[in-house]
Design a protein that fits this description.
Structural class: alpha+beta
Distance between the termini: 11 Å
Strand content: 5-15%
Largest sheet: 2 strands, antiparallel
Number of domains: 1
Length: about 60
């Protein structure tokens, strides 16, 4: 992995929500274009800190 990360904002969404949205769009004949699924926004550093607590033995970027 990378040694450092850019502390940009990432969109976070549960895969089950994406699956449900995909089915809804597929079943709607009027649906067209792109759809964005986004439940939360989080900075990369904050996400890494959460992952460190959950999985402390992984080698994380600084």
């Amino acid at each position: 992995g990378k040694e450092t990360i850019q502390n940009v904002i990432h969109a976070i969404v549960d895969l089950r929500d994406v699956a449900e949205a995909s089915v809804l769009v597929y079943e709607c004949s009027e649906a067209s274009g792109r759809y964005i699924c986004n439940a939360h926004q989080m900075r990369a550093r904050d996400l890494v800190e959460i992952l460190k607590r959950l999985y402390p033995h992984y080698n994380y970027p600084k």
